[in-house]
Amino acid sequence: MTFTFRPLDPLKDAELLHAWVTHPKAAFWMMQDAKLEDVERAYMEIAADEHHHAELGLQDGVPAFLMEKYDPAHRELVGLYEPQPGDIGMHFLTPPTDTPVRGFTRSVITAVMEHLFEDPAVRRVVVEPDVDNKAVHALNEAVGFVPEREIQKPEKRALLSFCTRAQFLAARGVAV
Questions:
Q1: pLDDT at 159
Q2: How deeply is 125 buried, as exposed, middle or buried, from its count of CB atoms within 10 A (0-12, 13-18, 19+)?
Q3: Above pLDDT 90, what percent of the chain?
Q4: Lower CB count within 10 Å: N or C terminus of the chain?
Q5: CA 126 and chain centroid, separation
């Protein structure tokens, strides 16, 4: 599967995002009760934030998933771990579907990681999924993430995990 990325447009993409983030499948996104205006507002804040960015992953030009990247020295993980130069934080969300495609989500996280590592300044990707989100833990491990420890964020108990460029390439079977 081939994906491309484009910056999210908080107003034009809000209806699509609203359907994705309020679906029961997106429970760990913690926006189940969000109204359309709440989604617009949340993504307008991200769009205005120099340390947080949202992008849509496209498949054949059609929105296929959401990816957020952030600077963990300034957002999400401030005071919860010691950031290193080249760290970037990441979230991703695949939308609900009536016709699941085997391997789709793994293809998405692989594309997200490739996209993040296209930036030579990125040395390590940091994630902090909910400790109960076992499905994403398995996906993270499949692309090279190594859990470090559980941390308490204001909104959840999270599993702090890291993936270096070398770990990502090794997980893909690419000689480093």
A1: 96
A2: buried
A3: 75
A4: C
A5: 10
The amino acid that residue 95 corresponds to is: P
pLDDT in tens, 92-133: 999 988 888 899 999 999 999 999 999 999 999 999 999 999
- Write out pLDDT tens, residues 1-35: 789 999 999 989 999 999 999 887 877 777 878 89
Q: What is the dihedral sign for C-alpha 125, 25, 12, 110?
A: positive
Sole residue written with tokens 């499905």: 135
**Following CA atoms 119, 14, 49, 51 in sequence, which dihedral angle do they give, to the nearest 10 degrees?**
-30
User: Is there a contact between 29 and 43 (Cβ–Cβ < 8 Å)?
Assistant: no
Q: What is the mean pLDDT of the chain?
A: 92
Sheet holding 62-70, edge to edge: 4-7, 52-59, 62-70, 87-93, 124-127, 157-164, 146-152
CB 58 within 8 A of CB 3: yes
Nearest to 56 by CA among 112, 18, 103: 112
- Give the closest residue to 54 by CA, choosing from 143, 141, 115, 102: 115
Confidence at residue 36, expressed as pLDDT on a 0 to 100 scale: 86
Asked if residue 166 lies in contact with residue 159, where contact means CB atoms within 8 angstroms, the answer is no
Distance CA 25, CA 97 (A): 10
